[in-house]
Amino acid sequence: MEKIGWPVAADLARKWFEGPSHIFNNKPDSEQPWDDKIVTLQWAVRNEGVKTKLRDLIADDIYSDKAVALLKNKILRHVNDEFRSTKSTRPTPSFTARIINSDIRQFHLDWQFQRRKVNTFHGSNWLTPTEVTAALGNFALYAAVGRFEIQGERYFNYKKTPYEYCMDAEAILTHVYIYIKDNYSFNDEDPSKSQYLGHWNKAGMITSYLMNTNEFLGLVNSRWKTTIKADNEERLHIDLDYLSFGDEIKYPIDTRSSFWKKLLKKDVYWPVYNSSFNDWRKKKERGQDFMIYSKPELYALNKPITLRLGTICRPYENTLSGQ
């Protein structure tokens, strides 16, 4: 991976190989080993497909009814707890969500309210794998509460016993955090059909696809092969020979094209699957599946989101008048 200019993908693979044996737990909120240093959002959005998905997330997805409802619940819970725990009558200042004690998993659980999926095709460059596809495959961009302001009328309610101090609260979300979350693991949904990860050797890789290309070039059942070598040269081959699905990816691919190249091992590529990593883990008792997080980055919203939180009250005796 480093030879073909993919240092981030190489660092992720190195972390997996060096870690103790650990198989990923597919439960969404399960605790897993994690890393928040290797992958960065700015690295990922250099890819045009990822950049487009980020724009979709910020411009559209966070304003959906479902996202706004979840956002309101998360902010209301925080404002309610803070209002009831303080004795001051001064307006609540603007609030910025924080990662406490470097616990990004808890930050994700507390503040995330929308996501946008990025699949392997979107991360690729016209069917050519990129470092994003090698490092992350299918992943998601997440939006979390960033910064919001609280406003609204405050007053004493003397009609109740004991008296209450109340606020008709309104929150205005002005910023969101955006980050990547993904799992680096080699679990197969169907163990009998292990996921194909390309053909590899020490010099580079080949990916081989069999697909119906009617919507692309009018070619039926064409075989597409993309070669990526250490000099970053990329070659796309279209071959009309018909193969049953899976035939080609089960065997090595020999790209040697002449007698003079017959001894060049760098032109022979070997198939790699999820099962290849799992077999290695069993043999070596190493290989640690883990969660990937990028550090959240703050984005200002062109269109802030206003949330009416309703009336929040606390007992009068818990208020220091004039404070």
Number of strands: 14
Largest sheet: 8 strands, mixed
Radius of gyration: 26 Å
Number of helices: 8
Distance between the termini: 61 Å
The geometry reads as elongated
Assess the beta-strand content as a share of residues.
25-35%
Q: Which percent bin holds the helix content? A: 10-25%
In N-to-C order, the SSE pattern is: HEHHHEHEHHEEEEEEEEEHEE
Which structural category fits the helices and strands?
alpha+beta
Pick out the low-confidence regions.
210-225, 231-248
Q: Overall pLDDT, averaged?
A: 81
Structural commentary:
- The protein has 323 residues and is of the alpha+beta class.
- 24% of the residues lie in helices and 35% in strands.
- The strands form two sheets. Strands 1, 2, 3, 4, 5, 6, 13 and 14 form an eight-stranded mixed β-sheet that branches.
- β8 and β9 (219-229) form a beta hairpin.
- Mean pLDDT is 81; it is low at 210-225 and 231-248.
